[in-house]
């Protein structure tokens, strides 16, 4: 039997869904239908401080209002921390990650380049700390995040291909991954025992996701995810990136910048059918 065709939409319940989320969800369900597979809903709530029960309830309500349904039970990342810790332990045992004690200010002052997100790229300051110095700081309880030793990780993994799917034609292609652009990326954050990058590759493998659909804002992150998959011995899905829905200022819609939510549009009398038509999914 061939492996299942399975896609996922994975929002974070840290605010109300807006048109950008609606487009991504509808795109995922539409692509699942075109490929003859199913779409899952996954809740990415590793940020326990910002993710709220009210937002989770609203998320489900909004997606149902759009006419989408999914299989239960859902995977909630906040229930999956042991799996992320196990992945972290595997990387640590192979000496592919190291503790970093630098503050954002220190990184900004020392960085000489930026990563694909435009943030200061980590210059590798803590990579050269002695084992004794690392242990001393850890024993003191200094705030720590764990970073990937990119040079060692690339050497271990070798050349890697990213499989891609064209959303218009469904034609598959491949390209070489170039994760070095991220530098020594954070794998475990200071405020939570994982990171987006680590949890997403662990969960995609756990749920047997065959195709990952997401916005072009995550296109570059795919190279880092492909590297983590290779280091952890995980399968690599096919990636399909869609265009972003921008606001009137041509910037990506954002919860933090007050993008009008689906709930607000609904209260103004906009119907789900109108939303679907507006986004090209009538």
From TrEMBL:
GO molecular function, a single term: glutamate-tRNA ligase activity
PROSITE patterns noted in UniProt: AA_TRNA_LIGASE_I
Keyword Nucleotide-binding belongs to the record: yes
InterPro entries: aa-tRNA-synth_I_CS (IPR001412), Glu/Gln-tRNA-synth (IPR000924), Glu/Gln-tRNA-synth_Ib_cat-dom (IPR020058), GluQ/Sye (IPR049940), Rossmann-like_a/b/a_fold (IPR014729)
GO (cellular component) term, any one: cytosol
Keyword Transport: no
Keywords of the record: Aminoacyl-tRNA synthetase, ATP-binding, Ligase, Metal-binding, Nucleotide-binding, Protein biosynthesis, Zinc
Pfam family, one: tRNA-synt_1c
Superkingdom classification of source: Bacteria
GO terms for biological process, alphabetical: glutamyl-tRNA aminoacylation
PANTHER family from the UniProt entry: GLUTAMATE--TRNA LIGASE (PTHR43311), GLUTAMYL-Q TRNA(ASP) SYNTHETASE (PTHR43311:SF1)
Family to which this protein belongs: Belongs to the class-I aminoacyl-tRNA synthetase family.
Protein name, as recorded: tRNA glutamyl-Q(34) synthetase GluQRS
Organism (species): Devosia pacifica
Name of the gene encoding the protein in the UniProt record: gltX
């Amino acid at each position: 039997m061939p492996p299942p065709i399975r896609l996922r939409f994975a929002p974070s319940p840290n605010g109300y869904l807006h048109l950008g989320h609606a487009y991504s969800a509808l795109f995922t369900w539409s692509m699942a239908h075109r490929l003859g597979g199913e779409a899952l809903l996954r809740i990415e709530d590793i940020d326990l401080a910002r993710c709220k029960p009210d937002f989770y309830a609203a998320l489900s309500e909004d997606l149902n209002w759009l006419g989408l349904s999914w299989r239960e039970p859902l995977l909630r990342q906040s229930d999956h921390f042991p799996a992320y810790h196990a992945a972290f332990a595997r990387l640590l045992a192979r000496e592919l990650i190291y503790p970093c004690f630098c503050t954002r200010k220190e990184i900004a002052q020392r960085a000489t380049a930026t990563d694909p997100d435009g943030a200061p790229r980590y210059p590798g300051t803590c990579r050269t700390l002695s084992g004794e110095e690392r242990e001393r700081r850890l024993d003191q309880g200094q705030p720590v995040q764990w970073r990937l030793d990119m040079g060692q990780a690339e050497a271990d993994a070798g050349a890697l291909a990213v499989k891609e799917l064209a959303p218009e034609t469904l034609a598959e292609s491949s390209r070489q991954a170039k994760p070095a652009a991220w530098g020594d990326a954070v794998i475990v954050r200071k405020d939570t025992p994982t990171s987006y990058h680590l949890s997403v590759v662990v969960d995609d493998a756990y749920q047997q996701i065959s195709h990952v659909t997401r916005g072009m804002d995550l296109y570059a992150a795919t190279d880092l995810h492909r590297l983590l998959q290779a280091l952890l011995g995980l399968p690599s899905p096919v990636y399909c990136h869609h265009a972003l829905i921008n606001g009137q200022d041509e910037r990506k819609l954002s919860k933090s910048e007050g993008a009008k939510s689906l709930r607000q549009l609904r209260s103004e009398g906009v119907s789900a059918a109108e939303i679907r038509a507006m986004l090209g999914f009538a």
